[in-house]
Amino acid sequence: MSESLEADLRSWVRRQGVVVWLDQAGHYGGFVDRLQVLCDAGALPYEVRAFRGSHLALMMALDGAAAGTERVPLVIHLPGFTEETVRQTPLFELYAAGVRYRKALDTLVTEAAAGRVRPDQIASFKAQPDMTLAGADAWLSALLDDAEEGIGAQLQAMKPTAVFDDLLTGGCLAGRIGKLDDEDALWERFGVWVGLPGFWRDTTLPPSRPRAEDMAFVAASWALCVEYVDDLKRAPISQHLACVADLPRPVIETCRAVAAHLRGRHAGFYQRTADETEALLADEVEAARAEDLGKVDTFRFEEDKVLKAALAALDRGAYDLAGDWSDMRVGPKPTSTSFWLRDDPTRQSAWQLVSAAAHLGQTIARAGERIGVGTSNGGALEAAVGAYVERGAAVDQAHRQLEQRRMALLYPQLPEFEPLRTRLDEMRRAWRMWADAWAREFNALCQTHGFLAGASQQQRMLFDEVVKPLTQEAGTTAYFVVDALRFEMGEELYRQIVGTPATTVLLKPRLAELPTVTEVGMNVLAPVEKNGRLHVSMASDTGKVQGFQTGEFRVSDPETRKRAMHDRVGGGTCPWLTLEEVVSRDSTSLKRSVAQARLVVVHSQEIDNAGEKGVGPAVFDHVMQKLRAAWHLLRDAGVRRFVFTSDHGFLLLEDSAASAQAHGRRIDPQRRHVFSPVAADHTGEARVALADLSYEGVNGHLMFPETTAIFDTGRRPMSFVHGGNSLQERVIPVLTVVHRTASGGSSGQYGIKAEASEGVAGMHCIEAKVEVLTQRSLDFGSPKDIELALRVPDVEGVQVELCQTRGKARIAGGVVVATVGERFELFFRLSGAVDARTLIEIHHPSAVADVVPCVPDARFAVMATRAPASPLPTPAAGIGTGNVSWMEQLPDSGVRQVFEHLAAHGTVTENEAAAMLGGPRGLRRFALRFEGYAQKVPFGVRIDVVAGVKRYVREGN
User: Fold this and answer.
1) What's the pLDDT at 881?
2) Taxonomically, which superkingdom (predicted)?
3) CATH code of the domain in which 70 resides
4) Is beta strand 477-482 parallel, antiparallel or unpaired with respect to 503-511?
5) Structural domain contains residue 349
6) What pLDDT score does 433 carry?
7) pLDDT at 239 over 70
8) pLDDT, tens digit, for every residue of 309-322?
């Protein structure tokens, strides 16, 4: 006891300097006297002074010891004093300057003895009257001396976690189970470490002679109970757990350490122990509420309770509560180590969907139900755009991300699937109500103040105000015109680029021209305005905009846009590249292409095309990856100035047909707008004269639904729509990036090792690791994390949905962020037009580092989810690892012959296979390795037995 007390006191002095010890009960006078003797002998690193009845004597003893401005290591012992009584003494000034120290003898006994003797022995000693420090020293010494022989001494020298490792792996201690004395010593030690009570041992131990694992189970089971109670925000219900509150804090911390160790090192044992222990706590399970549970899900029922409670919170609009619970488990910095999520991707998926739903609810609440711009204000449109940028865009981003996660993660195998799907449907409706309210208010502002913003926010002025000035500087400027890049997506791109060294990054909004369709917005991104006005060419038969007149020609397609831009900025050339062309070329090739150009235009239609095909959410992140990759590649090619913008935004709607709005004949309107020669007002619509948009060469009016509704056109409903006057469609990003220095070269080359692993819940799985292949410089600038993505090299039209990771990787922004040198598992799904089996390629999508792609030596099933847009390649033409046909991946001619026959005819009997494989021995080898072979072919194969005849049968094409 005395040793423990001195060590604690020494620690305080080292940290605080002057320590004033208030010993109200006067327990420590003799101890302090012994310290003073040691101090006088120079055996202590601090001074010791004590009050012994005379303030004057103590003040004189302190004269010099506490003088000066530097902190002096000093202990002042004041027996019989409290915080109040010391104020009435001459020592108060010194007390105020120092740090108060108190240590009740009862507390000291608990702290010093916990983990060395059993909690019941501690409680028994503390119950004795007239307890003294000397008596406590003698008591503890006697107990420890009794345990210093045989296995007791060995156990006393071991850590509890090491003993569990030994028992669960068949170590030397496990081999001694069966000897009564050794068992008794181990039970004694478990009582000391985790406070194991006798009744719990009697409840959980089997009636037969215990094995090593049985003893480990009993102690681990109790440690889990202690962790659960310590994490609980109320007193436990179960009578089994009532005594946990009386355990010393060090014993509780040991139990928590044991539980954490078992979760990390013995997951299977932990799971069995937790489940069997949970069965003994039926009353606790019944009474538990999510609000009462802590940060650690010790038992499976805790995870279940909290998930159900989070769904209920979403239902009643308690988004912050649902968000807190989900952030603890799957947030950017999770504070809860839920064992039950770690090895269950389906439960992770459920929580990620809860997190995305809660985030959408939170952003809607922060944005508010109204834009909040007065209709009498000047600059009302600009103020509305500012409100959308500050508050509204975050809502649309949260809604898009929720739809992306829903498409990738929501499958019937998820726990609580039906309630979860219902909550997600409700969040769709919540977003729609919010978007409709903002759309009505925005249209009302436009009706009052005009639909055309000031010049600095007009799309038609963008080229001359932003792009052209950049091209007048030396070098090349890259102009990215991205179809349907919504403002919030530009904001996401901004966040990914803004931290680049020696780079100026600016993001500003502009309002797209009306109607917000490609034939208007994409052509207006070229220099077509004259004195702020646009000369419109419109088809008389279809009522659609064909382009804009500028000088002697009409800008209506990529070629004429390129011509208008080149004429305005000059330069030897003006390359017009698609986004796919840029990312498929290397920086050397790109450097040759842009060498004589002031302006290079990068055109992307991937977002709009995917949205029109109904697969937008599955593709959006891939396009963002390509945009970043193109930026990196062009910068490596010498381009230092970039402008990213779009023609219009979009709306993501579900059940759009149910809310379709009638407008005359179904053939008159487009989805979100209609041209009309007459000025007719319709209920639920906003109208603007084309002349008020400063359009020349055309008369009439433009009408839109005042909400996010679509017009009833009689065509199939779409979830991806644009053409109207909502903020989601009109506010476009203008992202400028200016690099002050050239791009630094990559410091090394990386490779990827990957192989197929066992999937779960309809998800495929690969186990992979990023490794350094070559290091061309010191490691100071090398990335610690590498972005990876999946793509399908041999079948067109297959979408890859990244679902979950396990290990040293995470999914962020549609890519896998993997730690270099660390293994991880990636779960994913493949969907396409027809059932197929395909290879996947793991690659580095953002072109930041030099990473060699990898094609695992296995094929994965594609789930058919939609009708094929075009015929798919035949399996025999498929590409294998390293562009080798799938047939060449098979090891020998006999195996190839079997699968070639299956591809052509669909079945092979066992006798036919034996003939192809050279006889019964070859057939046996084939049967043993069949699963591995089947992973390499682009179709499924099953084994049937019909009338006693075994045969191999092809599944799918």
Assistant:
1) 45
2) Bacteria
3) 3.40.50
4) unpaired
5) yes
6) 96
7) yes
8) 999 999 999 999 99
For the record, the structure tokens of 632 come out as 């990196």
Residues β-bridged to residue 535: 549, 696
Whole domain around residue 866: which residue ranges?
Answer: 748-881
Q: What is the pLDDT of residues 900-942, one digit of tens each?
A: 888 877 788 888 888 888 888 888 888 887 877 777 777 777 7
Residue 182's contacts (CB-CB under 8 Å, 6 or more residues apart) are 151, 176
Which CATH number is 851's domain given?
2.60.40
- How many residues can be counted in the chain? 957
In this predicted structure, the answer to whether residue 81 has a pLDDT above a threshold of 50 is yes
Read off the pLDDT of each residue in 48-77 and give the average, rounded to a whole number: 78
Query: Do 441 and 588 lie in a common domain?
Result: no
Distance between CA atoms of residues 63 and 51, nearest Å: 14
Residues 578-584, mean pLDDT to the nearest whole number: 94
Q: Which residues pair with 553 in a beta bridge?
A: 550
Instruction: Please determine, for residue 872, whether its predicted confidence score (pLDDT) is greater than 70.
Output: no
User: Average pLDDT of 97-121?
Assistant: 84
Is the same domain home to 418 and 324? Answer: yes
User: 10 Å Cβ neighbour count for 111?
Assistant: 17
Distance CA 916, CA 922 (A): 9
Distance (Å, whole) CA 234 – CA 582: 60
My answer on whether 488 and 563 are in the same domain is: yes
Q: Quick one: 489 and 590 in the same domain?
A: yes
From CA 363, how far away is CA 627, in angstroms rounded?
A: 26
The pLDDT assigned to 850 comes to: 85
Straight-line distance from the first to the last Cα atom of the chain, in angstroms, rounded to the nearest whole number: 79
H/E/C letters for each residue in 868-913? CCCCCCCHHHCECHHHCEHHHHCCCHHHHHHHHHHHHHCEEEHHHH
* Same domain as 932, residue 857: no
Report the alpha-carbon distance of residue 508 to residue 527 in Å, rounded. 19
Instruction: Please tell me the distance from the alpha carbon of residue 323 to that of residue 529, in angstroms, as a whole number.
Output: 48
Integer angstrom CA distances of residue 294 from 109, 264, 301, 344, 862 = 29, 19, 13, 21, 41
